[in-house]
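Data card: per-record layout.
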Amino acid sequence: MSETSSTNEENKLPLNGRRAIPPNYSNDEENEVPEMETFGFIPRGFNPRDYLRVVDINMFKDPHEINKQEHHTDKYYNPKLIVRRGQAFQIQIDFNRPYKPETDQLWLEFLMGRYPQQNKGTYIPVLVGNVLKPGQWGAKIIHRENNSIRLSIMSSTTCIIGKFRLYVAVLTPFGILRTRRNSATDTYILFNPWCQLDAVYLDDEKEREEYVLNDVGIVFHGNVEEVKSRSWSYGQFEENILDACLFLMDKAELELSGRGNPIKICRVASAVINSRDENGVIAGSWNNSYDNGVAPSAWTGSVDILLEYYSSKQPVRYGQCWVFAGVFNTFLRCLGIPARLITNYSSAHDNNANLRLDFFLDDEGKVDTRLTKDSVWNYHCWNEAWMTRPDLPVGFGGWQVVDGTPQETSDGMYRCGPASVQAIKHGHVCFQFDAPFVYAEVNSDIFYTRMEKNGTQVVEKIDTTHIGQLIVTKEVGGDGMVDITEEYKFREGSDEERLALETAVMYGVKKQSIQDTTYQPQTDVDMDFQAQKAVLGNDFKVTITFRNKSRNSYTATTYLSGNIVFYTGVTKSEFKKHSFSAKLEPSSSSSFDIVIKSSEYMNDLLEQASFHFFVTARINETGKILAVQKAIMLEIPTLRIKTKGELVAGKETSVIVEFTNPLKQTLENVTLRLEGPGVLRTIKKQFGRIPMNSTLTWEVRFIPMRPGLRKLIASLNSNALRHVYGELNVQVQKP
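The structure for this 735-residue chain is written out next.
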């Protein structure tokens, strides 16, 4: 077989009985475009050089030039042209002679992928006309001078998102002459929240600056009573991040023709952010062992994770919910979809979506860990993305919940959303996607159920207010916290809340009725549990208070169980058991203090330094049980960051990170990380050990890249201590 015929064989498309063209998944692959496309017979003496020929194309693609300025893409660390759809941009074409509009005919071609097709939006011919129509492809000449013309080009508001190849085509009597393939004229087209006709249009400039252009955010963690915050570097404008984000859609095998639709993009991205299906970006680990990887708490931002995945094509180890949400936020903002990171405190992970979390108690009133399968996460992070929902009735556009943390499967894959926040609030959980699961995360009730010897279940207490009691996000234009609970649910106990619940049940959310079980709570005695502020490595005390509202004397046999838990509410070990008998006088309150010693908890402590206390009390005279649970966070020391002298873009400077070990033990295997978008790329350093009470000092020399208000973020990670952060706002001066 000759060489020529074998290459012809290879160029033939693979046969497939269902479609003439293979699926077009890859933004990177290319087809060959002929420079001379003849119309048949070419006469002797024909010389393409006699016709209008393109000598050069100027894309005005530098950050300070008109295109990137007007399209809000000047921050992208990328030398190519980046524009937003539905908005005009300019290019200049230089020819070998002056352009004659009467006789010369030319057009532009934008191509994407290996099999460009006009009806799929992957081959776009743009004719030069006299007028630009809003939201439709078109081009018109706005300036002619010597051998050059300047074009204003309008893209469609439904155009697919990604990297297009650009050709200029000139018509001659015998065929079409095209410019050579030139990667310097490649054009990225992104979503446009500034354009009223775009599905992601957001009408508030301050919100656009926050939800699209801000490259640093805040993750709220801890628990309801002790909200903690840390900075996260999204870094959506950093070098190669845009290409990495486009690669995620290739990896998820999203057909190129579907990439203009933010609903589809969010749905496939929520699956590809986690590694549970098709080797996505981040491998989750919730078991406190992070061999061959980075502990979730050590990451300071998304850039390292996305770049590692883009180069290795293998899941990056390891993440937990805020890492999935941080990377997802980078992906959305990078493509131009307004996005924010949300924290839901006391988030229900309800395994059978029946709006009820069952905590089973044994005869003595202690929690039976064997039977209890549901869990309450201290907090759970997800994302909201802003878009219209033409697939739903009017009124359900706006913020949509999307979640990349693998919790439950949806249509056979670990993904969640987009689910309309408005639909969740009103109980319209019939609208796609995954609204019942999110509704349960913020609205479930906790049932404390005692199993009797004969197998009957006695419900001892129902807590309707514990789950989803606080839902927050970062404020626009600042680092503060905004309470958005009311966007997800009506006020507890209001008529509207009851109506929303009835609607959700009507639309198929399972809600078990109390009638299935006996339920007679003890109403004349209240029990409360409080803890004083607890600092890591110190003793602290907790207080149980009873209020007897009756005229009877009671005695209460009380159990306290202190557990070290993962932030997902799953217990690692019980470190404290304490029981006592409390005498409750009529119409009075009585308090009981219990001391928790550091020696009891330090050995088993997990990285988020989080405890979960269950207190149950049996009123001996009536046999009724009172139950309360509470999560407590220890105060963790922080890193201190200081700069030496002023920071000037392009000039070397240094910054100092300090940490004092407060524990009564030496810290082993200490790793420090420091990063700041626009200031410095992530730098890591390993330190062997830090003895107790001693201070570690690390000086980093670097050259700040861009002027403006920036943020430095540092983290410390070690075997015994994680979730140690520090941050500093710095002003980088212009040179």
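Known properties of this structure: The first strand starts at residue 36 and ends at 38. The domain at 216-510 is CATH 3.90.260.10 (Coagulation Factor XIII; Chain A, domain 2).

See the next section for split statistics.
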